[in-house]
Amino acid sequence: ADEDAVQQALSMMRLDALTHRTWQRLSGGERQRCQIARALTQQPDILLLDEPINHLDIQFQLELMRLISALPVTVIMALHDLNLAARYCQHLVVLHEGHVVASGKPVAVLTPELIQSTWQVDATICRTERGMMNIQYA
């Protein structure tokens, strides 16, 4: 059963072909996926991630966010990239100075007013041709 859980986690994080590599030979994105696979072997109901895309190139940020959003568990993560949060998260909780200032679906939470009051940044929110939110900062 343990070997099955390991194999399933490796498959979910698309690491099957990398099992022969040592930790030192993995890229930053591969290491992040490996750490998440390690947690998944415990078959959790909830996965807590703190800045899982930090220090990753854009292609690996997008790949990791796609993989995380497809996981069969509840994922609670800290993110600072509002565009990625809007694109991949079903529910957002915005914290400011240790207090919840907004909670809900990205389209309801991420408003120019909230962005201004929370981060003191002017923002415009547009929709892409595919309907995704795109936050542009002034």
Automatic annotation (TrEMBL):
<dbReference type="Pfam" id="PF00005">
    <property type="entry name" value="ABC_tran"/>
</dbReference>
<dbReference type="InterPro" id="IPR003439">
    <property type="entry name" value="ABC_transporter-like_ATP-bd"/>
</dbReference>
<protein>
    <submittedName>
        <fullName>ABC transporter ATP-binding protein</fullName>
    </submittedName>
</protein>
<keyword id="KW-0547">Nucleotide-binding</keyword>
<dbReference type="InterPro" id="IPR027417">
    <property type="entry name" value="P-loop_NTPase"/>
</dbReference>
<dbReference type="GO" id="GO:0016887">
    <property type="term" value="F:ATP hydrolysis activity"/>
</dbReference>
<dbReference type="GO" id="GO:0005524">
    <property type="term" value="F:ATP binding"/>
</dbReference>
<feature type="domain" description="ABC transporter">
    <location>
        <begin position="2"/>
        <end position="54"/>
    </location>
</feature>
<keyword id="KW-0067">ATP-binding</keyword>
